[in-house]
Design a protein that fits this description.
By secondary structure, the chain is α/β, with parallel strands linked by helices. It has a single domain, classed as Rossmann fold. The two termini are 27 Å apart.
């Protein structure tokens, strides 16, 4: 498997480190030890998630949001890898497996991301000033829509879409300002890779793109390319200040 390209400058030592650590991170048993949690969003709906807790506290945290029609369990292996590296991870379900017809209603689903940040920030074992979010496909769109919340220190969009069923992310990403944003896409996913390229133009803050070659979209892209998943984890370690 070839190493996914990173469309930003990285030294050869860092690339070698990523290759060496990939095997250690992804050869372990993928069965995660998360526990299920539920909490309320501002609109009254119940949010269901799986929490993967870091071993020491208080720890940084990341919210993991799936693609439309995909379960939160898709993030299970990656959620446990975050916890193993002392980043608490919360994988959540979307409100429904099917999208509402009205784009405004769909954009309103970002309430579950905000609720997740609220819930994590209230946990004694979480460092409330070090919360991030990652979303796949529509999940990334919702993460961007929620990122006006300054408590979200960094965000990653896996297989991003400039526009998803009428919901655009460019304006939302501008509200992120100087906070770092990562885009992850496959070269064989033309819309996602083009969206990643376009969304980094004239950005108000640091933007990076990791590209892979598997013909996959969303979290399955990370499963198909463990090196790409490893880079995603490493990026969050750096942006959240985890040694």
């Amino acid at each position: 498997m070839s190493l996914p390209a990173r469309v930003s400058r990285a030294g050869p030592g860092r690339v070698r480190a990523a290759l060496v650590l990939t095997a250690a991170l992804w050869s372990a048993d993928a069965t995660a030890a998360g526990r299920n949690v539920t909490f309320r969003a501002d609109d009254g709906r119940t949010v269901t998630g799986t929490l993967f807790e870091a071993s020491s506290a208080p720890a940084p945290a990341v919210v993991l949001v799936p693609a439309l029609g995909h379960p939160r369990d898709e993030w299970q292996a990656l959620g446990q890898r975050f916890a193993d590296l002392n980043i608490t991870a919360l994988a959540i379900d979307l409100p429904s497996a099917t999208a509402p017809a009205d784009a405004r209603d769909l954009a309103g689903w970002s309430v579950v991301v905000r609720a997740s940040v609220n819930w994590l920030a209230a946990q004694p074992a979480v460092k409330a000033t070090s919360i991030a979010a990652a979303g796949a496909s529509l999940g990334g769109t919702l993460v961007a829509a929620a990122a006006a919340d300054p408590r979200i220190r960094a965000l990653a969009l896996v297989s991003p879409s400039e526009e998803f069923r009428g919901v655009r992310v460019e304006g939302a990403l501008r509200q992120v300002g100087s906070r770092p944003v990562l885009f992850v896409a496959s070269r064989k996913d033309p819309y996602a890779s083009r969206s990643a390229r376009d969304l980094t133009k004239d950005a108000p803050g640091p933007r990076e793109t990791f590209l892979g070659d598997a013909a996959s979209h969303g979290v399955p892209l990370l499963t198909a390319e463990p090196d790409l998943a490893r880079r995603l984890v490493e990026w969050f370690q750096q942006t959240l200040g985890v040694n």
